[in-house]
Amino acid sequence: MSELDKKIREALRDEDAAALADVGDEPSMFETIMETFRGRYKWLAVMAVSWSIVFMVMGVLAAIKFFQAEATRDMLMWAVACILCLSAVSMMKVWYWMELNKNALTREIKRLELQIARLARRIKD
Questions:
Q1: CB–CB of 12/18 below 8 Å?
Q2: What is the DSSP string of 35-83?
Q3: If 0-12 CB within 10 Å is exposed, 13-18 middle and 19+ buried, where does residue 11 land?
Q4: H or E segment to which residue 96 belongs
Q5: Sign of CA dihedral 40, 43, 46, 47
Q6: Residue 1 and residue 5: Cα distance in Å, rounded?
């Protein structure tokens, strides 16, 4: 928890601090990753991970074939195949990290909405 988080928690009233404790702290990396497989787009996350594995295997096989090739043309072909496969893996990983970031941002926005709703209720009462 950062220094700013500590100052915010100290400034909150007791009831708000208790409600904020119910929301909980930041989830662990494992919990964050598992959230992507529970959401509305879980099929997309499963497909991305599956294709990442497929492209990784193809990239490794292309690298092995590169070192086994004897002709320059074959070496060039296998090198390009390896680079393309590993680039595809990289792009899918970037997409996946963007999904994790989107989920974290959504979680923070929902926390803000909760705080605003509580503030509005307190002002109304």
A1: no
A2: HHTTSTTHHHHHHHHHHHHHHHHHHHHHHHHHHH--SHHHHHHHHHHHH
A3: exposed
A4: helix 72-124
A5: negative
A6: 6
Length of the chain: 125
Tell me the pTM.
Answer: 0.69
Q: Report pLDDT digits (tens) over 76-117.
A: 999 999 999 999 999 999 999 998 899 889 888 988 898 888
Kindly state the DSSP code that residue 12 receives in the 8-state scheme: S
Residue with tokens 């787009």: 41
85 close to 59: Cβ distance less than 8 angstroms: yes
SS3 assignment, position 24 = coil
How far CA 24 is from CA of 6, 20, 37, 78, 98, in Å, comes to 14, 7, 21, 50, 23
